[in-house]
Amino acid sequence: MPTPAPDSRRLAPGRADSHSPLAWPLRALRPLLHRALLRGLRAPRLAHDPPIAQLAQLAQGTRHALRLETLRLRGARGQTLAAWLLTQDLRGPAHASATSATSATREPSAQPLPAVLAMHGWGANASTLWPAVDPLLAAGFAVMLVDASCHGESGDEDFTSLPRFAEDIATALEALCAHPAVDRDRIALLGHSVGAGAALLHAARSTENPAAGPCPVRAVVSLSAFAHPAEMMQRWMAEHRIPRRVLGNAILGHVQQVIGERFERIAPVNTIAALACPVLLVHGRHDTTVPMADALRLRDAQPRAELLVVDADHDLRAALAPQGARIVAFLQRALG
Predict the structure, then answer these.
(1) Among 56, 67, 205, 279, which is least packed by CB within 10 angstroms?
(2) CA 310 and chain centroid, separation
(3) Is 157 in contact with 79 (CB distance < 8 Å)?
(4) E-state strands within 167-305
(5) Which CATH class is domain 53-226+267-335?
(6) Phi, psi (degrees; rounded to nearest 5) at 283
(7) Is the model's pLDDT at 106 over the cut of 50?
């Protein structure tokens, strides 16, 4: 039986504190609250260690003949997004660099490749997903890695959010779909944590309005996804000992106003229910950041979803390589 989602009436912007004796003081303090939240919720910027190019060279030195294209994309809000496209090079070992969204001079493979667009989680970067990349490349997939805004080598903004992660996915997907080496009808999304929530959100929007996206999403691999952003915020406030009755509901409402979305509309437990494509949920049984109960709720919300439980915590990097064959098999079935 799915665990009920939080009561949306308690999460509506402006409603939680409207009848409280603290309502007027909280409104007066809203600018201060806004600045404090931007500072407190800002994602740390993690450097690539090692860089993507070095990871590609190491893989090429083992069993892959790889082609790497380094891309700089213009995001939906005018920011720069760093991205990398990796494909097997059938002509032999090579290393290429491109500065535009696509490389018009690139000779396409004999047959366009199925592709996976991978989005990291909060405070991480594209290189943290490399353990998932290696088995995909070995199986003949093209892989695009992206640094979300405010992360890695991408441009900075006042803030980022799950909806903005989804916008960054849409920008990268447009470049991926236009690439001559890629089969635009066989594309999947893979994301970790907030990146997984963003992948589910983009896929749900594409399902609701197929004409809105650059190409269809045929499958989603969700790593360590949470069920509801309000619950993540509540856990964050509990860790920082923020009193819910005094400030908690005001913070929940203010965050929704800032990101421009109701939590209910972007909650993975709701977006996954709207999907028509296959979904693989991968979750660590020792995850203390996002409890296993969230993965079970996501599976219950989408009966066609598959759940793969691995011996790991929230950071699945050590568990991804041993499970590479399972993820590859799922994508091969989904993409054909």
Answers:
(1) 205
(2) 19
(3) yes
(4) 182-192, 219-223, 279-284
(5) alpha beta
(6) -145, 140
(7) no
